[in-house]
Write a structure and sequence with these properties.
The protein is an alpha/beta fold. It has a single domain (2-355), classed as Divalent-metal-dependent TIM barrel enzymes (TIM Barrel). It is built from 14 helices and 12 strands. It has an 8-stranded parallel beta barrel with strand order 1-2-3-4-7-8-9-12, surrounded by 4 helices. The protein has a 4-stranded antiparallel beta sheet with strand order 5-6-11-10. Strand 5 (116-120) and strand 6 (126-131) form a beta hairpin. Helix 4 (80-96) runs parallel beside helix 9 and helix 13 crosses helix 14. The longest helix has 22 residues, at 179-200. It is globular, with a radius of gyration of 19 Å. The structure holds D-mannose (DNO). D-mannose (DNO) is lined by residues 65-66, 103-105, 111-112, 157-158, 207, 318, 330.
């Protein structure tokens, strides 16, 4: 495995590359062209410039998170082929620049959903949190406004204001889309992009729906092992793989995380490892990575990744805001650096124990 950190790019991320370079063991970043809206082509020159900037800091680009998929593709509207053609052009341009991992999601309208961006924990740190009653009590547009307000000016990944200004139209697009139709639209998209992925050896790593159930009545399918199997069988190509995100699958306690990992050998191309603390089945908050701070056993998660021979990039995920840091919620430096060190420590111990 390679330890990495997510980096949103100059002008968007509060954390500069030189600081990431100083986290022991972190050799790469998972990055993006954050100003690109879903449906836009990523030009070769922009990709090259981003790569050069990362390399000048002594790191390398381990993968992209995300190349976002336009809603026309997810909803399967008549113009979807135009957007798939553009997506293919972007993949080609990434492949030519020797980038071989792309994380994306297939969640309608919203990406990840939280009801609080800065819940205070007993130690004074703040974390993102989710409460089902809070979601049930508001309309989608209110949630978007509340998140924007709490983000303190930061642009939140997957919550592009340009796109979400049209929440009503977006919801209308999905009026006739149920889980079956969404699966079908995903199959159509994957079948069209697999040839370019094979040509340039690009591993597509679908990110789970977060939380792993339907919100606001929208269909959601990347939620459990049964659906993952279905997705991989319907387009049976090793380039059609997954991002194993512990925090997203873990929102549903029925998902046994280590068992899921063991059921996916060769198809986990990227791992997001973090912890959640459940206060009740309807309420959770993002704890520190350390097992004892939350509800997951991080040792077992890392051990399962090790046992299946996982060799892709891994990154600590949403961190708490600690030591007075001001940053994009979930994406400060300090707690993610602690997370990277902890995960690297677990890996070293598992690896050495494995040799004995
Ligand atoms: C949130 C992230 C997601 C993820 C996308 C992948 O912090 O985990 O926004 O990057 O769903 O496309």
């Amino acid at each position: 495995m390679e330890m990495t950190l997510r980096w949103f790019g100059n002008g968007f991320d509060t954390v500069p590359l030189w600081k990431i370079r100083q986290i022991p063991g972190v050799t790469g970043v998972i990055t993006t062209l954050y100003d690109k809206e879903p449906g836009e082509v990523w030009e070769a020159a922009r990709i090259r410039a981003m790569k050069e900037e990362v390399e000048a800091a002594g790191l390398h680009v381990s993968g992209i998170e995300s190349v976002n998929v336009h809603d026309a593709i997810k909803a399967g509207t008549p113009d979807r082929d135009l957007y798939i053609d553009r997506y293919i052009e972007t993949l080609e341009n990434l492949g030519k620049e020797d980038i071989h991992l792309v994380c994306y999601n297939f969640m309608p309208v919203f990406d990840w959903t939280r009801t609080e961006l800065a819940r205070v924990r007993p130690d004074g740190s703040t974390v993102m949190a989710y409460n089902q009653q809070a979601v049930d009590a508001i309309r989608p547009s209110e949630m978007f406004d509340a998140m924007q307000k709490d983000a303190g000016g930061a642009r939140l990944a997957g919550w592009e204001p340009e796109r979400l200004a049209h929440t009503r139209e977006l919801f209308d697009m999905y009026r006739d889309v149920d889980n079956e139709k969404l699966f079908e639209n995903l199959r159509y998209f994957l079948e069209r992009i697999m040839p370019v992925c094979s040509e340039y050896d690009i591993r597509m790593a679908i990110h789970p729906d977060d939380p792993a159930w339907s919100v606001f009545g929208l269909p959601r399918i990347i939620t459990n092992i049964g659906n993952l199997r279905r997705m991989m069988e319907m387009v049976d190509d090793p380039h059609n793989g997954v991002t194993f995100c512990a925090g997203s699958y873990g929102t549903n306690p029925e998902n046994d995380l280590p068992e899921m990992i063991r059921a996916l050998p060769g198809r986990i191309h990227f791992a997001h490892v973090r912890n959640l603390k459940f206060n009740s089945p309807d309420d959770f908050e993002e704890a520190a990575h350390l097992s004892s701070d939350g509800s997951f056993d991080l040792y077992e998660i890392m051990k399962a990744l090790y046992d299946i021979g996982f060799d892709g990039p891994i990154r600590p995920d949403h961190g708490r805001m600690i030591w007075g840091e001001q940053a994009m919620p979930g994406y400060g430096l300090y707690d993610r650096a602690l997370g990277a060190m902890y995960l690297s420590g677990l890996w070293e111990a598992i690896e050495k124990a494995g040799r004995e």
